[in-house]
Amino acid sequence: MRSDVIGWPEETAAGYRRAGYWRDRTLDDLLRERAAEHGDRTALVSASGRLSYADLDERAGRLAAGLAGLPIHRGDRVLLQLPNREEYVVTLFALLRIGALPILALPSLGTTELTALARLSGATAHVVAQGRGRNDPRTGAAEVARACPSLRHLVVAGDPGPGGGHSLAALERAGAEAPAVTSGAAPGDPALLLLSGGTTGTPKLIPRTHADYDYNARASAEVCALDEHTVYLAVLPVTHNFTMVSPGIVGTLAAGGTVVLCPDPSPTTAFTLVEAEGVTITALVPSLVPHWLDEARRTSRDLSSLRVLQVGGSRLDDATARRVGPELGCRLQQVFGMAEGLNNYTRLDDPEEVVCTTQGRPLSPADEILVVDEEGRPVPPGHPGELLTRGPYTLRGYYRAPEHDRLSFTPDGFYRTGDLVVRTARGDLVVVGRIKDQVNRAGEKIAAIEVEEHLLALPDVRAAALVGVPDPQLGERSVAFLETDAPCPSRSEVRRLLLERGLAAFKVPDEVRAVPKLPLTGIGKVDKRRLRADVAGLTPTVPSPTA
Ligand code: OOB
């Protein structure tokens, strides 16, 4: 029988259990235990109000019973595509209680990506929020369901609308009358599926088990010194791994603290919540940091409760890093993580220089890391090489992707991150580049090949290449090179066509250029290095009319 999920070798797993990294608990147990210990403490604050641990536990239980009645069973895959609102956390824990596997999907995903995810996973349900106008997620969900017969249930935070489906509120009410769901999962079972930034044309899913995710969250909470007084502000999308377990929502709940959901990442919204709720820690991608620093100068809000600003998802430049402490009056922590597992943190007591110039070191003493050259030989400290890793919370294989696994893992189970790093003499990592064919646009990862396949489908395009180039606002912006004899389509034309094809808006190239012929390397691959140099103005290409 085909195995959907590759686990750790039995002996390794036994070692992780013996060492106490993996506990005999599920994520559902974690919530139940916290609710039993201190039910009246505030677990969650959002635009809908405040939920104590007991409320959250009770609501998750009712919704679990309601969802089970649809039915959604243990092991079923469910696309969970909600923004930063209360329903996300309640639904997440409801699904974990059933033992169903949420697929954590960004609200910004397009129908193409969602269809591919539903097909790969055989998902039976899709949870979205009610929206308005052209971008109403309910419309997209209906389209995805037409393309994927496995998707039998549409569940909506809000009004399901004329297309039908179930509202979360109605399911919760129905669940109050239904038999309670008893925990459906074991600690070693997959708990959820995360999206990989990816380097392939189709999305990849990352299975994370209850035990490994619980460890990731708890160990992160410890490194960040979280406790019951912690107030964590979730600014980045809640379905991102950074917001989930680094230490994020799950780490904060594990520590008995309070999670506050920020409905948008603007500093004005965030600062209002910092003041009102006494936020102690939050997390940003580098592209947001300058806006926060600018607003901090202007604001009349009291930000003195903020102790730690985490920054990660892409490289933070040293100069901006040095501004954080003095201008925001809190400690900076750099986080170099990945949905596949490994989290690196600068420590709160690290010297200023380390915090401002490195991306930290691995979370766990059991994280094994190698920095290797092109032949896979370890390089000495101070030399760049690819980062390989394995450990108690790093995947051993993608979900249903054996061919891809052969490229992504070494025979002895190390995950090839595709990141180029330098390890300092102290053991801290500095991210110096990337060998994976990806654009990191404001922390959102775009697989070049996925966009290239869509570009190739445009009229008169013979060949296409997408590259990331440095950008002061986004970190990197995406530039598409189109090989065409016809007049080059404008950027807005390309945008319209790609959105029509169901691509997510953040994957639409920021700039479009025409070339008579794409440059090739000696072995005949597209020479992306040369293309990046073109953008830097070293050799001329033709920007599109309204690029
Ligand atoms: C986080 O997770 P993903 O899965 O969206 O992206 C992982 C990739 C890394 O392989 C690396 O290429 C890049 O994002 N990255 C960084 C970075 N943090 C992530 N590159 C340079 N400096 C950093 N600090 O992005 C993620 C997951 C958990 C915690 C934090 C980030």
From TrEMBL:
Pfam families: AMP-binding, AMP-binding_C. GO terms for molecular function: acid-thiol ligase activity. InterPro entries: AMP-bd_C, AMP-bd_C_sf, AMP-binding_CS, AMP-dep_synth/lig_dom, ATP-dep_AMP-bd_enzyme. PANTHER family: LONG-CHAIN-FATTY-ACID--COA LIGASE (PTHR43767), NONRIBOSOMAL PEPTIDE SYNTHASE PES1 (EUROFUNG)-RELATED (PTHR43767:SF1). Keywords: Ligase. Residues 450-525 form the AMP-binding enzyme C-terminal domain. Residues 31-399 form the AMP-dependent synthetase/ligase domain. It comes from the Bacteria. This is 2,3-dihydroxybenzoate-AMP ligase. The keyword Oxidoreductase does not apply.
